[in-house]
Amino acid sequence: MKKTARSLLIAAFAAAIFTVAAAGQSEQPVSLPTQDGGTIYANVYGKSKHGVVLAHGGRFNKESWAKQAKELADAGFVVLAFDFRGYGKSTGPGQADVFTAPLYLDVLAAVEYLRKNGAKTVSLVGGSLGGGAAADAVTKAKPGEIARLVTLGGLAGNQSVEKINVPLLVITTRNDANAAGLRLPNIQATFAKVPAKKQLVILEGTAHAQFMFDTDQSEKIMKMIVKFLKKK
């Protein structure tokens, strides 16, 4: 009986630990206003004084970041993954054409939310369309509002990249291409114009932006991102 009771106690204790851990990584749905009257819906993961905003690519949504968001939360960040206007339930002016819409305002709304809820620093990670919007947000942000910028598979948005003034990490694959051809030459040309401290990582393969997380290089990419975001 004693052995059975002890086994049951251990099992209950293990289950409690698992429940607490799972609760800590579950997402918290939130909505936030943009400066131009839009409403953005997002999921928040973890708790920390160091925030990360995840901006999805054109073929993705906030849920596409779930695995990476939980990994970043485990690494010590509070993470906000949001839907751009025109995606999910998010709305805002210009949403009918996301390529000309002021998506940087959605990014800045996410940054403001994290700061108002205790984050002392906020960095951005964006894939493709989201990378361009994140880069635009950096050029429009107040001094010190955004700490670092990571883009996946692209960099150019609708604003001047010469105004990017925070440390930058760009990750892309060598043979990523669209109908116009290889993306790398344009990425390199745009990257060269950025005056801030910067790093360009070119991986082998053809995967574009967030699709890189579906390859066997996913773990390597996440380690690079976490290391970059934790630099002081």
Task: Summarize the structure in short.
With 232 residues, the protein is of the alpha/beta class.
Largest sheet: 8 strands, mixed
- Mind telling me the C-alpha Rg? 19 Å
Count of alpha/pi helices: 6
Which stretches of 5+ consecutive residues score pLDDT under 50? 1-24
What can you see in these coordinates?
With 232 residues, this protein is an alpha/beta fold. The chain is built from 6 helices and 10 strands, in the order αβββαβαβαββββαβα. The chain has helices at 2-25, 66-74, 104-116, 129-140, 184-192, 218-229, and strands spanning 28-33, 39-45, 50-55, 78-82, 121-127, 149-152, 168-173, 177-178, 181-182, 198-203. It has an 8-stranded mixed beta sheet with strand order 1-2-4-3-5-6-7-10, with helices on both faces. Strands 8-9 form a two-stranded antiparallel ribbon. Helix 2 (66-74) links the parallel strand 3 and strand 4. Helix 3 packs across helix 4 (129-140). The longest helix is centred in the first third of the chain and has 24 residues, at 2-25.
